[in-house]
DNA sequence: GATTATCTGTGCAAAAATGCACGAATGATA
DNA sequence: TATCATTCGTGCATTTTTGCACAGATAATC
């Protein structure tokens, strides 16, 4: 009988397109992946990948079994969640993911506190940009900024996100209003059109903290979620007294339904939820320093 | 991430109810199974089996993931067939299953011949009583006696099976007719009621060859598929000249659809099919020695 | 065209998994 | 009750798998 674990290797190589990347994802040496694939091919007398100079490319034979492999992976995730879901110990791994700004400016101290409270729990923090897949158990607890999370996640909305316009106290606005926008925005954003008809794009950034420092440096006006500048509460950076309707996006603390009763996951979710609730007025923009 | 191969161990233990039997099925030492299950439990902090004196018993936690494990097994079988299905070599393993009487009295010489013709092919013969599951790749080629095979199997019907009544040439039939029947038949079988109203059950057997030797020993009359006594063609054992309509069951040579184009499987199927066709008149009861 | 980076395969040593053999515990059987 | 048969866990030797380090090959880049 084939080694079921080899399907895992096969799948990852098929997805990655080369054994190096697959090995990294699987957390093993690339030579292991190489040898497993070789073994799978030899044992079945089937060539699964063409060795092209840039890596591995699926053959037709491989495409024929690819769908089955995906199905197996999905069921394995179900099992993994099923098992963790019944773990009543306050120990083991928890993978937590959140936007890195939330961590840096809201929860760093609290996460540290949690680790002190539960030294038996190994808390792994993923603050990378990509959205972690809770169904695949890439994360057990997630803080997400989203209008509404999918059905298979449980948790609650802490509050809606409030945005505000911010500028440096020293910013001298003449006829043209310099504004700072997101890098992916090509045209003048609607908020600028509405409130600053004479706006001119002064800078594009792809990171919230960069936006903040740009504002602080006096480069222009930016629309930011209040929690960041208001946490830092720098004398230089002030909110402009223009009302913006609250965003339809909220701050959510979430877990997969299957992990509802898992002791450590529940503990972590409730703990972080509490922390966020303590910051509610911050998210609502009630602690701003105005111009 | 969990070791996907461990699910295989889990599933087999869940099915077997003890690690010894599971290990035997998996072809490994029982201590390996024991340690794998232990590891799976420890890594996930979940007890999967209660150790009862007679073996292992699934906990609720285990039942919750059992269905997923079955699904994974099925998809792994799909993959295994998918891979073998694209093997164009005339080498490797073939698992063949057939009723043991067919092997003993029809195909023993031919199987030997096939192995000589294709020394690169490792032909594994399963003549055990239980019906092998072709979907699970327990067998690649099967000779089956059946009214009609399931859709996912391909192959052909060699001929319908002809039965006949046999007796020893020396059998003296007085007022009562001694008959030999299958062990699971409780009442007088219909064939006896129809043709031998004065029949008396003289012996019950659970094996065709035993039935034959009983007939030869003069214990009574038996209804047997013609191929067996007619192959042996013993002077003592004669068919009674009573017509029996041909059975609705036929002799089939079969493979799984997925293995249609697999070179060695195709070769074997065609070869054995040919052998059976050469014996067609035997199955039709055209070579009987009559009383 | 030369250089750099990326990707892959392989020998060798270290690590992990496996098989074997034994002993303990329980259930079945005489 | 005593014996036998199953079943399971564990120490130890062996086998297998894995990681590491290096080398060769091709693509990308300068």
Which regions of chain A contain 5 or more consecutive residues with pLDDT less than 50?
none
What's the CATH H-level superfamily name of the largest domain in chain A? Answer: Periplasmic binding protein-like II
Oligomer: homodimer
Trace the largest sheet of chain A across and list its strands: 4-3-5-12-6
SSE pattern of chain A: HHHEEHEHEEEEEHEHEHEEHH
How much of the sequence lies in strands of chain A comes to 15-25%
How would you explain this protein's 3D organization?
Two copies of one chain form a homodimer. Chain A is globular. Chain A is an alpha/beta fold and 291 residues long. Chain A has a five-stranded mixed β-sheet, with helices on one face. In chain A, strands 9-8-10-7-11 form a five-stranded mixed β-sheet. Chain A has a two-stranded antiparallel sheet with strand order 1-2. Chain A has three domains: 4-84, Orthogonal Bundle (Arc Repressor Mutant, subunit A), CATH 1.10.10; 92-159 and 249-282, 3-Layer(aba) Sandwich (D-Maltodextrin-Binding Protein, domain 2); 163-239, Periplasmic binding protein-like II (D-Maltodextrin-Binding Protein, domain 2, 3-Layer(aba) Sandwich). Helix content of chain A is 41%, strand content 23%. The model of chain A has no long low-confidence stretch (mean pLDDT 92). The interface between A and B is medium-sized, with 32 and 32 residues. Chain B binds a DNA duplex (30 and 30 nucleotides) through residues 18-20, 28-32, 34-36, 38, 51, 53-56.
């Amino acid at each position: 009988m084939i080694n079921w674990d080899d399907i895992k290797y096969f799948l990852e190589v098929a997805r990655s397109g080369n054994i190096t990347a697959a090995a990294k994802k699987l957390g093993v040496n690339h030579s292991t992946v190489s040898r497993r694939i070789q073994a799978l091919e030899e044992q079945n007398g089937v060539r699964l990948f063409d060795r092209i100079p840039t890596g591995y490319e699926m053959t037709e034979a491989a495409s024929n079994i690819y769908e089955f492999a995906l199905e197996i992976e999905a069921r394995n995730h179900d099992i993994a969640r099923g098992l963790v879901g019944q773990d009543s110990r306050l120990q083991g791994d928890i993978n937590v993911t959140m936007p890195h700004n939330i961590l840096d400016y809201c929860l760093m101290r609290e996460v540290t506190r949690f680790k002190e409270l539960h030294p038996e729990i190994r808390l792994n923090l993923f603050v990378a940009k990509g959205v972690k897949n809770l169904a695949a158990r890439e994360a057990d607890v997630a803080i997400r900024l989203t209008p509404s999370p999918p059905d298979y996640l449980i948790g609650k909305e802490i509050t809606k996100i409030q945005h505000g316009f911010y500028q440096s106290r020293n910013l001298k606005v003449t006829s043209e209003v310099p504004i700072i926008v997101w890098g992916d925005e090509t045209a003048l954003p609607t908020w600028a059109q509405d409130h600053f008809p004479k706006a001119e794009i002064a800078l594009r950034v792809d990171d919230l903290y960069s936006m903040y420092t740009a504002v602080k440096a006096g480069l222009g006006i930016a629309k930011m979620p209040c929690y960041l500048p208001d946490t830092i509460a720098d004398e230089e950076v002030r909110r402009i007294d223009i009302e913006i309707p609250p965003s339809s996006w909220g701050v959510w603390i979430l877990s997969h339904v299957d992990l509802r009763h898992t002791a450590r996951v529940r503990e972590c979710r409730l703990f972080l939820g509490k922390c966020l609730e303590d910051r509610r007025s911050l998210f609502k923009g009630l602690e701003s320093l105005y111009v």
